[in-house]
Amino acid sequence: MYQERPEWEDVIPLPQDDGALPLAQIAYTDEYAEAMSYLRALMAKDEHSERALEITEHIIEMNPAHYTVWLYRANIVFALGKDLRKEVEWLNEKALRHEKNYQIWHHRQLIIDKLDDSTGEADFIAKMFQKDAKNYHVWSYRQWLVKRFGLWEKGELEYVEYLLEQDVRNNSAWSHRFFLVCGNGQELTEEIVQRELGYVSDNIFLAPQNPSPWNYIRGILQRAKLPMSRIEKTCTYYAPLDNPEKIKSSHALDILAEIYSTIPEQKDLAIQSLDLLSSTYDPIRTNYWNYRKTQIQKAAA
Amino acid sequence: MANPSEPTPLVTILPGPSAFSIDGPPYPPPETLNIPRHLKYWLRCTKTCLPEDYTPTDTNRMTLGCFSISALDLLGNLQTETTPQERAGWVDWLYMNQLPGGGFRGGPATNFSIPGAETEDKDDGNERGHKYDPVNLPACYFAIATLVALGDDLERLDRRGLLKVVNRLQREDGSFGECLIRENGQDKVTTGGDMRFVYMAAAVRWLLRGQEGMGCREVPDFEVEKLVGYIRSAQGYDGGVSDRELGESHAGMTYCAVAALSLLGHLEDGISNYDDLVRWLVQRQVPFEERHVMDDEEWADILATGTEAEKAAGVEINLGPDGKPIWGGFHGRCNKKADTCYSFWIGGTLSILKKLHLMDLNANRRFLLEKTRHIIGGFMKLPEDGGKPDILHSFLGLAALALMREEGLNRLDPALCISMQAKERLMALDWWKNGAL
């Protein structure tokens, strides 16, 4: 308790005023209520001191989403000229414990930006991904790092491939691949498109019903302004319309419907694909497949 | 694409019809919404203290307050189960959290203006109160939405000040930040590049100015075109929207983007690929999979690296007599688990686009009413044994059902996320009709 500690003797705690009829009142623990009163007293004065740093840590442990305690902490750290590397180490432990918190990542961005050095960040992110390789905040932070430090060709693509070997259904990793392939202003040359088609093909082979690589290659073709018919053969391989029993991917059927819908003579094949999706291969989306059929019919009329 | 001209035998099979069970448990009749139980849950949330687990939401109490009051509003019990004194008291509490100069804080935890407090704000010329007690944009939206639900006329709201603050929260790229802090005589917009704050800014603008932005013209509008451009750039390669250019599409971000566009009257030009957006939205619905008993770790391995045959063998999907999955909720990102709140984020977005009928409404309804509702009222995040209901998922579950016109619930405006009555009451206020400040 702060009130029993001599180094806090001079601080007059500021209790919370919740009014007469509060909404969403929380049954705070005594520990939190007291620490918050002392934190308010220090923040009110904008005190930059060791004890202020200590109390920010205490509050962050109990309530990492407190949006100004982080700002206060950053001001103290910079004002006292603290070792920023130590701050990063401290943050590592917090981030591993509070995975869903995003203030931690904002604070990290502030510190790393000031340090102007991303050494060690990839290793730490790998640790975070061991716990959850789809953590949205961590991916956002990684993309900031890539842009801030120009890491486009520093092993990023290889890292994505490593993560997809661990889990081919990790859509965050697929999305990061798109960011790397298209995010640096590079042109999607035929060579790159070929490379991506090959990579996607291998991964679809592993799990034809995994939507991620199908969405990914649609995106690449759209971006390169190439027709979807570039993957028609792959689609018919996983969804042979002349042998419906052999169909192995609803996503292949979906893309086939898209390809055939643009060709008047093949409209019937498009309708057949959508019917198969609706009746057998993806019945939860029946209303949607029927809507697509209506659109084709409308376009023909 | 390297496509073998002579197909080699595939080791994988589609979890298609073979994975669907026809001799599973007998087809159960649908359950209905247990209104008394949900009411009890929400009265507990509004009239007694929340447990200490809510401590990490201490600076977002406006959000929790809004969900609690709005839930009672959707259940149609706000007037009957709370007294005029209680409602007036809550209104006072909301205004207690209004800051000098306009805007709201997220809760009393950051209030330093307590009589006798010794403050020394080093920020010279700070007209807005203490720098560590800043305007919080989500709090502004949630406070107004709650006030409107409680029937307040917003006469005590510093509307001019609030609109000015919102303008100052806009960033160079058109997006909005979370908090406005005055430091060393300068505005500092903290955190951002986040679609949530974009939505909050658009919603506050609508609530005070209407869709065309005609109301309260004495304060200039923020840069709507820039904001629309920001949203447009965040549509991903798969059709969904993320928090920034080339991020991973996410249902929460997609709702925020589409709702913001609709509130700004820019649905037509703010989405570059409408067909892909609709496709992405409906693809988020996933059949509920009954997992066969298997060690959690073992199952995680199969999910990551297992073949589709192994994956299909581990679960069972129950089909109804119509051949469609009985239960089917929504996930927020491709290849993730279904979670109650995404029934709203996706349902709300489809509703705004007038495409709600494209989802399997029956499967979604049954997922909520039979898999994630809690026995004591409210909804859990996931359909898991031993889960607990929480305010966010309990409100969004109800809101998702309201969008689907569940019997016994009031109707919800999908973009503002307040009840239709609350919206109509706001629009009937004299100052609102006259577009005055």
From TrEMBL, chain A:
Its EC number is 2.5.1.58, 2.5.1.59. Pfam families: PPTA. InterPro entries: Prenyl_trans_a. PROSITE patterns: PFTA. The keyword Magnesium applies. GO terms for molecular function: CAAX-protein geranylgeranyltransferase activity; protein farnesyltransferase activity. GO terms for cellular component: CAAX-protein geranylgeranyltransferase complex; protein farnesyltransferase complex. Keywords: Magnesium, Prenyltransferase, Repeat, Transferase. Its cofactor is Mg(2+). Belongs to the protein prenyltransferase subunit alpha family. This is Protein farnesyltransferase/geranylgeranyltransferase type-1 subunit alpha. It comes from Pyronema omphalodes (strain CBS 100304) (Pyronema confluens). The lineage of its organism: Eukaryota, Fungi, Dikarya, Ascomycota, Pezizomycotina.
From TrEMBL, chain B:
Residues 33-418 form the Prenyltransferase alpha-alpha toroid domain. It comes from the Eukaryota. Its cofactor is Zn(2+). InterPro entries: PGGT1B-like, Prenyltrans, Terpenoid_cyclase/PrenylTrfase. Residues 106-129 are annotated as: Disordered. Keywords: Metal-binding, Prenyltransferase, Repeat, Transferase, Zinc. Gene3D superfamilies: 1.50.10.20. Pfam families: Prenyltrans. GO terms for molecular function: CAAX-protein geranylgeranyltransferase activity; metal ion binding. GO terms for cellular component: CAAX-protein geranylgeranyltransferase complex. Belongs to the protein prenyltransferase subunit beta family. PANTHER family: GERANYLGERANYL TRANSFERASE TYPE BETA SUBUNIT, GERANYLGERANYL TRANSFERASE TYPE-1 SUBUNIT BETA. This is Similar to Geranylgeranyl transferase type-1 subunit beta acc. no. Q5EAD5. It comes from Pyronema omphalodes (strain CBS 100304) (Pyronema confluens).
